[in-house]
Amino acid sequence: MIGQRQTLLDARDRVTGRIPYTINLEPPGTLHVAILRSTVPHARLVRVDASAASQLPGVAAVLTRDDFAGSSIRPLFGPVFRDQPIVAMDRVRYVGEPVAAVAATDLRAAEAALESIEVEYEELPAVFTPQDALAAGAPLLHESFDDRAPGYADIVLQGQGGNVCNKFQLRKGDGLAGFELADEIFEHEFSSPPVQHVSMEPHAAVASFEGDYLTVHTCTQTPYAVRDALAYMFRLPASHVRVVVPPVGGGFGGKTYAKVEPLAAVLSKMTHRPVKVHLTREEEFVTNRKHQAFIKLRTGMRRDGTIVAREVQALFNAGAYTDISPRLIKNGGYGAVGPYRISHVHIDSYAVFTNLPSAGAFRGYGVSQGSWAYESQMDMIAEAMGFDPIELRMRNLLLEGDTFATGETLHGIRFPEVLRDATTLFEAGRVPPPAEDDGSVKRGRGCAVIIKSTITPSTSAASVKLNSDGSLQVLTSTVDMGQGAHTALSQIAASALGVGVGSIGVVGPDTDVTPFDLTTSSSRSTAAMGAAVREAVFDVRRQLLDLAAQQMEVDVTDLELADGRISVVGDPASGRSIAEVVTASRRGTLAGNGSFVTEGGLHPETGQGIASEHWHQGAVAAEVDVDVATGKVTVRGLRASVYAGTVVNPINARMQIDGSVSFGISQALFEQLIHDEGHPANSSLSEYALAGLADLPEVFEVSLIEDPDNDEMHGLGETCLPPVMPAIANAVADAVGVRIRHLPLTAERVLDALEEQR
Amino acid sequence: MSDGSEIFLLNLRVNGRAHRVPVSADDTLLDVLRRDLRFFSCRETCGLGLCGSCTVVVDGRAVSACLAPAFTQDGCEVRTAEGLEDTDDLHPVQQAFVDEQAFQCSFCTPGFLMSTVAMLEEDGPADVESALTGHLCRCGSYRQIMAAVGKVAGDGRDGTGE
Ligand code: FES
Ligand code: FES
Fold first, then answer.
1. Aldehyde oxidase/xanthine dehydrogenase a/b hammerhead domain: which residues (chain A) (predicted)?
2. I want to staple A387 with a disulfide (CB 3.0 to 4.6 A). Which of A382, A724, A729, B85 is the partner?
């Protein structure tokens, strides 16, 4: 039931290792794929010759651009612009871009055949940072922008030209003129590097064409978006494309929208065999990533500590293709205002093409980059103006009924409570002092608080089937990827019907069977899909009561449904079970439908409108030790607090916050993708540093702030990630007085900063 | 066996059953378990012996299957997560992982289980931390994992810290 600790329904399969991930699938006759990838960052593709490779033993097909000549298959895809080729057409735009792909009877044969494919490049000048890409005379990555995919009404396309992929802007109050009201103005630049999701299960898909029907099993977070992309690509009605999503081994945003599915599908079309694509870890690193960002933040302060004006100039590195950048820079743009009441706001946020792998959705969705800037600067301002950093925040935090930068009125706002809750970590004695005090280890404290939207407008639909034995199936396209979504939805369905979780079964994403859902991301599924499931159960419940009223020859308003029995109010003995009513009805099963649809959108010039159906609110307080001899930062204590509304399953709610914190510590201290002239320099887990068990703080607290009077559920999958990085940086500054504005805070970088300070 | 194409027959036991598998010199134990024998609890994440997700127990020791050349496993006794349970009951380590819900996506889970089993039943390292520090859980279920392992190892650790 809602609010109860519920072990995952498929826990047994998970501990026996039998959970059926996509990578386990291999229908009879499956061909395996190896991908030849570009070795140069930017080049005209002069020649791709696969004639020798296609003759090798075991090789069933080699896909190159030549296969699209005269074919009806559309070779480009992408959720917003269809600008990404399945294999390179006229150009390559990053090191690692697929140029050709071999399907063979076994993986070794496919890999071996790659060596026989001849490729000739004519190299072009390349750009790797948004600044260079925007400079006059920079080489252009794309000449035209004309193939917009339909859908995603919230995405406004503007500002394209040169290497600008998209622009978001917001003007509130008097905009820049608002700085005239400021007594002091602070201006700083902050940067975040690109990082990778490193979901432990890589991208994988098995595609199989049978006649004009295409079936794809894939570990995507967006089954319907993948289905629609494939239908368009192959000029098939959507009814001929079926996308099935088995349990997913971690997503974190990296598995949104089509990724490897088009390649598997084209090769299946060519070979009439099932085709499996299963990326290597090295390939994962060039497949999708978090946007590198450079954010210039100018903040106008009144002497009393009121923020009056804020200007945000944000450059997000989109990499070579659009992916979902236009939405991400929008959310990252207004998100960079922070959870503060600011009368005058001016935001320009750009996604910029460069010759690096495409960036896309990543847990935190642009908010991490923005809050890294504004929550770092908040402490810098507090120090410069002589305020306590917590007090300065409290003075400016948004309150219930306030207006956000987008002009929308905020409800369900708990920022002061959330921040105060997090900072209880600092109460005396909570975090033990540094073990040895020879003066080389300094202790510091820092906090951060963030606001994050959820994707709006959005749609989720669900169906339920009530069987004649009283059990209920929930049909949902929500992807179970470790967040426990299906278990939470079972709890919601069980509560709505008044039965135990044991009689609920969940049918996961299968676009032939389960109704539409926009995406499993944006921390939305428990709230949005939960609402749809509840409505579907109410639909079936109404039918059930009507049938019972007929059968019992009473008025339906006299009936109640509790504990799986329907009875006349006040006369439990009159009752009959759900099973009895359904059976007696001779309907076989009762079907119910429900949906949850939100509205919103922002004005293209002013950014005013509705950005989010509700707002995620999180804060983190951290205590760190900094070893001044080595520069090493150790997080000793951390408390993450989040406004949760109603919690469905406290176990999974807490675990998602644990996960966000471990992501945050990893990004604060270690993670960054490094390139040398566009060549990835750390595409393996031996070179790409990640936080592990040993990096978690010994005092680690998670606090879910609930509202017993409000049954609104707030997503919890991301909210506590963005504040981790600035909270740690603020604690480092508090400990040793150095301010690092560029993530990550590696020991080397801290040591350099300490040396500079001396 | 230099070009990796030579085939020979590998004899090994997995979860108590004998198998004979043709392997080539560049096959790893992971290839044999997943590709040939379909023990899907053995999963590759890094392929470098760094993440623990491919851990199985070989002759009593926790081993990274991604690094172990198949041909060196001849005559070995391999245990995977699929072989831990009795007909009806989960192994105590598995049960502890369920009770503490020590996973989110659970991709890492069999590796953690097998290292724990090696530690408790065989002659692995004596303390939990050194047995498990090499394991990556990207979902960040570490506290619950430590609680589960602590429970079966009897050190009474409370992973949630609350
Ligand atoms: S896959 Fe073997 S240790 Fe990582
Ligand atoms: S539970 Fe997902 S990686 Fe550990």
1. 16-125
2. A382
The domain of A490 spans 458-598
Q: What is the pTM of this model?
A: 0.96
Q: State the average pLDDT over residues B5-19.
A: 92
pLDDT at A300: 98
pLDDT in tens, B104-138: 999 999 999 999 999 998 765 667 888 898 899 99
Whether residues A440 and A473 share a domain: the answer is no
The Cα–Cα gap between A221 and A207 comes to: 17
> What are the residue ranges in chain A where pLDDT is below 70?
437
Q: Which ligand lies nearest to the CA atom of residue A251 in the structure?
A: 2
Measure the CA–CA gap between A599 and A645, rounded to whole angstroms: 21
Predicted pLDDT of residue A555: 95
ipTM exceeding the 0.90 mark: yes
- Please name the residue ranges forming H helices in A87-222: 107-114, 130-134
User: Helix or strand or coil: residue B19?
Assistant: strand
C-alpha to C-alpha distance for B52 and B65, rounded to whole angstroms:
9
Cβ pair A656:B138 closer than 8 A:
no
For chain A, how big is the Rg over CA atoms in Å? 27
CATH architecture classification, B7-83: Roll (3.10)
Q: Residue B51: what residue type?
A: C
Domain limits, chain B: 7-83, 92-153
- Within 6 A (CB) of ligand 2 lie A 200, 250, 482; B 103-108, 137-139, 141
Q: How many domains does chain A have?
A: 3
Nearest CA to ligand 1 atom 3: B49
Query: How far, in Å, is the centroid of ligand 1 from the Cα of A129?
Result: 33
Ligand nearest to the CA of A484: 2
Q: The domain spanning residue A546 has which CATH number? A: 3.30.365.10
A188 located within any domain: no
